[in-house]
Amino acid sequence: MTDTPSTSAGFIALIGEPNAGKSTLLNQMVGAKVSIVTHKVQTTRARIRGVAIEGDAQLVFVDTPGLFRPRRRLDRAMVKAAWGGAADADVVVLLIEAHRGLTEGAKAIIEGLAEHTEGRKVALAINKIDRVQAERLLALTREMNEAYPFAETFMISAEKGHGVQQLREWLAGEMPKGPWMYPEDQIADLPLRMIAAEMTREKLTLRLHQELPYQLTVETENWENRPDGSARLDQIIYVMRDGHKGIILGKKGETIKAISTAARAEMEEFLGHRVHLFLQIKVRPNWLEESTRYSEMGLNFKDGEA
């Protein structure tokens, strides 16, 4: 007769429309920045796993790309990855923004829930609750639960942390019994190369605003740990047109210098040691059609086929 394990562990998929706050919630849950957070939509490309501990439970969060109507190969691969993350999870959390309510996009996601989450509990997290009055929140809760039989509904502010602990405790109680899947001190299962590339891409996205956030990608080409405890990272920024190089470089190289400085500072804080960061820009007009670029982002190239 075997003893029932005292520990539990499972996967939780965070799904929702672009910019609903999934990455912010993931970072709150984990207590560290493992997912790219910007004011841009569609910034999460890979399914990022963040790991959190709550009591005897290990919660492995999958921050999926936002679900939206895809137009390009990259869009289609991202949406396929998002639904794949939901289908593979033990519990699914749908995030919606309180001030936007039950949008057409949210309705489309709810229609897809039955197909992709059969047999799994789905919780509703109404995010950014500080932006609306209590009466509207109650009305939205009723409307959402009439649209889908959610297991639980949580009112949260992912940015400020309100309600996040209650959600985490409920999730811990829903995890299947079994041993932990990751060491206690591990907060993400993304390779460090990809985390570093995401950090640089975030700084590019924040700095460049509307100019070309979705037409570039970053890869960590080389990572060298040095004897003095520091690391040298060589990264390539792939862009689609020659004109994009000038935008990233900026006047007298000021833009790329600022991006490099900000990315390096975040890498040093995350890694706990000095980083020497070298950025190079390469024009690849068809990088959106190259399977290697998708592999680097943790996406399946074939999932992007129409």
TrEMBL record:
The Era-type G domain sits at 8-177
Record localization: Cytoplasm; Cell membrane
Q: Where does GTP bind?
A: 16-23, 63-67, 127-130
Listed GO biological process terms: ribosomal small subunit assembly
Q: Which GO terms describe its cellular component?
A: cytosol; plasma membrane
Q: Where is this region: G2?
A: 42-46
**What does the function comment of this entry state?**
An essential GTPase that binds both GDP and GTP, with rapid nucleotide exchange. Plays a role in 16S rRNA processing and 30S ribosomal subunit biogenesis and possibly also in cell cycle regulation and energy metabolism.
Q: Assembly and partners?
A: Monomer.
Q: What is this protein called?
A: GTPase Era
- Species of origin reads Harenicola maris
Gene that encodes it: era
